[in-house]
Predict the 3D structure of the following.
Amino acid sequence: MGYLKIIRPLNCAITFISVLCGVWVGKEIIFTNKIIFAGLVGFLVCAFGNIINDLNDIAIDRINNPKRPLVAGLVKKNIVVIMALIFIILSLSITTVLGLKSFLLVLITIILLSLYAVYFKKTPFANFIVAIIAGLSFVFGGFITENIISLIPALFAILIHTPREIIKDIMDIKGDTEFSVASLPIIYGEQNARNVARFFLILFILTCPLPFIFGILNIKYLIVVGVIVIPLTIFTIVQLYNSSRASNLLKFIMFIGLIAFIIG
């Protein structure tokens, strides 16, 4: 189970769906080999990112996340490294049939994930790097069907992933402080970090109706957003004092948001 847990399969599944969302948003839902391959590449790249993140966080995770597979001794480091290399090779190999733009985007994403784990994670830019990478999942899907509307969920991904990453940094202050990680909560304080997260969530709420208002997505999108996404986001803002609960709520909101974009 440790080798499955280390790739964080739920996060990888969300990335898989995010790629498909980029393919389908504003379009008819269809399945082709290329679409399935694209989703699979998204899954594999996410798995690679999660592994390299854990490999570089072993020392910090002993404090912040002692149950992570590497720290808990559930997996062997050399096997995990081989897994990461296999995921890179598979993702780049599969992407060769999806076109040059797709290949380059996947390559850039792999480089960004590597730089994030090794360098950016210890800087104030970490939250935004993760948010941008999340947005690229939709852009990658959009490349498959030349779907420029994929930029819209990509933007929303940035708006909601940024506050979630800030909240996760608040949860990790203890270990991050010991290892000189320059996260937003450490540099500017927990309350200021929560205010930044609150700002992004308010901006997210204000922009949610725009795809319907401008006639890009239909009434089904607006209903899901209006009935579930916006109320839950408001509730999350109220719950920001409870970092763990807020983080879980935002992950659920992300999933519902994907549904809204796909049916819209």
Observations:
- The chain has 15 helices and no strands.
- The two ends are 37 Å apart (CA to CA).
- The first helix runs from residue 2 to 5.
